[in-house]
Amino acid sequence: QVQLVQSGGGLVQPGGSLRLSCAVSGFTLDYYVIGWFRQAPGKEREGVSCISISDGSTYYADSVKGRFTISRDNAKSTVYLQMNSLKPEDTAVYYCATDPKYLGQCTVVALLWRYDYWGQGTQVTVSS
Question: In the 8-state DSSP scheme, what is residue 80?
Fold first, then answer.
């Protein structure tokens, strides 16, 4: 059974930093992609970033490029999203997701895929 367990998040002032974690279990594949998504109240879900577990290739949405960094620790089966220079508009519930059926690269296409497996979500609030 595939499971994604998230941790991190919370309340931070504008300009601050937070790190989200996504621990993946139940996978035996050598290749898969992990995506991070967010959804703010009243808005559609937005793809933020993704990473390929096999080669570490990454992709970022324009809205977070240069401020967020995605990384993975294969030994721990965990993906991280380091968020720096946070803005109030980054406030949202953040989710990680994956799907063994997605065999593509970590590109904008990966952020449009309908993933089968999702983390439980974690609130990030950026406010003074």
Answer: E
Measure the CA–CA gap between 17 and 107, rounded to whole angstroms: 25
- Cα–Cα distance, 81 to 98 (Å, whole number): 15
Counting beta carbons within 10 angstroms of the beta carbon of residue 77, is it exposed (0 to 12), middle (13 to 18) or buried (19 or more)?
middle
User: How far apart are alpha carbons 23 and 107 in whole angstroms?
Assistant: 21
Neighbouring C-alpha atoms within 13 Å toward the C-beta of 68: 25
Closest C-alpha to 29, from 114, 111, 117, 119: 117
Q: What is the mean pLDDT of the chain?
A: 94
In the beta sheet, which residues pair with residue 47? Answer: 37
Cβ(37)–Cβ(95) below 8 Å: yes
Q: Mind listing the pLDDT tens digit for each residue in 10-67?
A: 999 999 999 999 999 987 767 889 999 999 999 999 999 999 988 899 999 999 999 9
Question: How many residues appear in the chain?
Answer: 128
